[in-house]
Amino acid sequence: ETKASAGGGNTSETMLANFFNSLLSKKSGGV
Amino acid sequence: PSSSEMQRLMNEKAHELFQVCDTEKKGFITKRDMQRLQSELPLSPEQLEHVFDSLDVDGNGFLSLEEFTDGFGGFLGLRSTS
Questions:
Q1: For residue A4, how far is the Cα from the chain centroid?
Q2: Alpha-carbon B68 to chain mean position
Q3: CA-to-CA distance for A17 and A8, rounded, in angstroms?
Q4: Is the Cβ–Cβ distance between B32 and B65 less than 8 Å?
Q5: Does A27 touch chain B (CB under 8 A)?
Q6: What are the helix (H) ranges across A1-31?
Q7: Which residue in A has a C-alpha nearest to residue B72's C-alpha?
Q8: Alpha carbon of B67 to those of A4, B14, B71: distances in Å?
Q9: How far is B68 from chain A (nearest CA, A)?
Q10: What is the pLDDT of residues A4-15, one digit of tens each?
Q11: Most Cβ neighbours (<10 Å): which of B22, B29, B33, B46?
């Protein structure tokens, strides 16, 4: 079974980008 | 700016963001810390878990500042010199 072959690495990069972007906006929004 | 300057700025920013996650100032981030962020970030618990696993390259269940900074650098398109 090749679970990892489907989807590729882009999904996790998108998630990471989402995560860091959210942290950055949280950081700049609040004190 | 020079690449070492970029590196320094990135490390500073990564440290700030690390502290947002490490609310108890333990010096590392656990999955529990990530789950706590769920209410504040637009990511599902599964996504946060996935993010954690991606960043936790040694898979020990603790995210060190170094691992976090490395992941942040990857996000910015920079690579920390190892």
A1: 17
A2: 3
A3: 16
A4: no
A5: yes
A6: 10-29
A7: A20
A8: 23, 10, 6
A9: 10
A10: 434 445 788 889
A11: B29
